[in-house]
């Protein structure tokens, strides 16, 4: 069975609205013969005469009357699909976005981000979700709208990515800690009592590899899954936390930070999303808000 010619829907919509082949032809800029051929094709496709002679004019059949509103709506919906999206009205936008982030992002960047969103789009709600792994599936299946993190080889290649900021690891101890009163050396750092942060529960990381080159080893007394936990422990003890500087800005309030005595490479924190949302106006607006907040929050 041949596929129907959907272009005929536009012709049918105009014919049923005008009730006249001549007037429909003028609206569609078609000749009388072309309109007559189109009506013949519509009659064949629907199995109904649609418009029949009544005196000097035409009247719709019951089938035509039944189809009139449905056809008009179909044409309107099709026109909306093929028309550029209307200008985004932020004051009327009602939507919940899910943002999956690493530990500390919401605490550091969330307050300014929510202030911006609340002022511009009061109907928008942001759901911060924990990031227990680097699986790209939540972005692919639409569970998550945006994600922050470091792009790695395992990151899905189709994802869209934009850099947010550069970050580096620093050491953090409580206010008044002995480590805050003298120059930090690799030996002094390694001899302290450390909190190791590992989402996967591993007992070593890049810092341990760097110290090993110097023949040193950290005294790791506890392993935690996130930076906020590490800083909470360090704030209430003599333990040392090694955390990203910008990522944990608000979490470190009132604590002493120091540059690591071992050189570790800086890294880029990026914003990631699935390409199906690339052209969505509301999503594009939210991405811009996240980017601008990360640029100004120090």
Explain what the structure shows.
The mean pLDDT is 90. This protein is rod-shaped. The longest helix is centred in the N-terminal third of the chain and has 20 residues, at 62-81. It is 38% helix and 22% strand. Helix 1 packs across helix 4 (62-81), helix 2 (21-28) crosses helix 3 and helix 5 crosses helix 10. It is built from 10 helices and 12 strands. A 5-stranded mixed beta sheet has the order 4-3-5-12-6, covered by helices on one side. Strands 9-8-10-7-11 form a 5-stranded mixed beta sheet, covered by helices on one side. It folds into 3 domains: 8-81, Winged helix-like DNA-binding domain superfamily/Winged helix DNA-binding domain (Arc Repressor Mutant, subunit A); 90-167 and 268-296, D-Maltodextrin-Binding Protein, domain 2; 169-265, Periplasmic binding protein-like II (D-Maltodextrin-Binding Protein, domain 2), CATH 3.40.190.
Question: Which key features would you list for this structure?
Answer:
298 residues; alpha/beta; Arc Repressor Mutant, subunit A; D-Maltodextrin-Binding Protein, domain 2; 3 domains; 5-stranded mixed β-sheet; rod-shaped
**Strand composition percent:** 15-25%
Instruction: Kindly give the count of domains.
Output: 3
Spell the H/E element sequence.
HHHEEHEHEHEEEHEHEHEEEH
Shape: rod-shaped
Radius of gyration: 32 Å
Report the major sheet. 5 strands, mixed
Runs with pLDDT <50, length 5+? none
- Total beta strand runs: 12
Annotated CATH architecture of the largest domain? 3-Layer(aba) Sandwich
Q: Tell me the span between the first and last alpha carbons.
A: 65 Å
Structural class: alpha/beta
Question: What would you give as the CATH superfamily of the largest domain?
Answer: Periplasmic binding protein-like II
Strand order of the largest sheet: 4-3-5-12-6
Number of helices: 10
Q: Fraction of residues in helices?
A: 25-40%
Mean pLDDT: 90
Please report the first level of CATH classification, the CATH class of the largest domain: Alpha Beta
């Amino acid at each position: 069975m041949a596929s129907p010619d959907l272009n005929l829907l536009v012709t049918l919509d105009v014919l049923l609205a005008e009730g006249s082949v001549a007037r429909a032809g003028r609206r569609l800029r078609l000749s009388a013969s072309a309109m007559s051929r189109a009506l013949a094709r519509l009659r064949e496709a629907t199995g109904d005469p649609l418009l029949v002679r009544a005196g000097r004019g035409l009247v719709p059949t019951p089938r035509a009357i039944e189809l009139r509103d449905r056809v008009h709506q179909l044409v309107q919906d099709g026109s909306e699909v093929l028309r550029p999206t209307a200008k985004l009205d932020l004051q009327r936008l009602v939507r919940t976005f899910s943002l999956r982030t690493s530990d500390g992002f919401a605490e550091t960047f969330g307050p300014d981000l929510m202030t911006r969103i609340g002022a511009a789009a009061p109907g928008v709600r942001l759901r911060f979700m924990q990031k227990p792994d680097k699986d790209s599936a939540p972005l692919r299946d639409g569970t998550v709208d945006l994600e922050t993190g470091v792009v790695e080889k395992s990151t899905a290649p189709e994802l869209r990515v934009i850099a947010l900021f550069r970050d580096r690891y620093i050491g953090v101890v409580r206010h008044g800690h002995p480590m805050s009163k003298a120059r930090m050396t690799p030996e002094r750092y390694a001899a302290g009592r450390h909190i190791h942060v590992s989402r996967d529960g591993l007992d070593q990381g890049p810092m341990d590899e760097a110290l090993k080159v110097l023949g040193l080893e950290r005294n790791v007394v506890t392993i935690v899954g996130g930076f906020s936990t590490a800083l909470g422990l360090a704030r209430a003890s003599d333990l040392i936390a090694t955390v990203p500087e910008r990522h944990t800005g608000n979490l470190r309030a009132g604590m002493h930070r120091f540059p690591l005595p071992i050189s570790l490479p800086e890294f880029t924190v990026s914003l990631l999303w699935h390409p199906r949302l690339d052209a969505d106006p509301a999503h594009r607006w939210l991405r811009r808000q996240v980017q601008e907040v990360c640029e100004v929050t120090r």
